[in-house]
Amino acid sequence: IILLFIAIIFTSIYTSIFRGMPFPADAPAHAWIWLSVSGFVGFVVGDLLLFESLVRNGSRITMLIMASVPLITGILSYFVLNELMTANQIIGMLIVLAGIVLVVIKKDSMSGKMVLSHPPKDLMFAVGGAVGQATGLILSKFGMADYDPIASTQIRIIAAIIGFSLVFTIRKDWHKVKRSLSNIPAMKYIVLGSFFGPTLGVSLSLIAVKYTNPGIASTLMSLTPIIIIPFAIFYLKEKMDLKEIIGAFIAVFGVAFIFMT
Question: Which residue has the higher pLDDT, 120 or 36?
Answer without folding.
Answer: 36
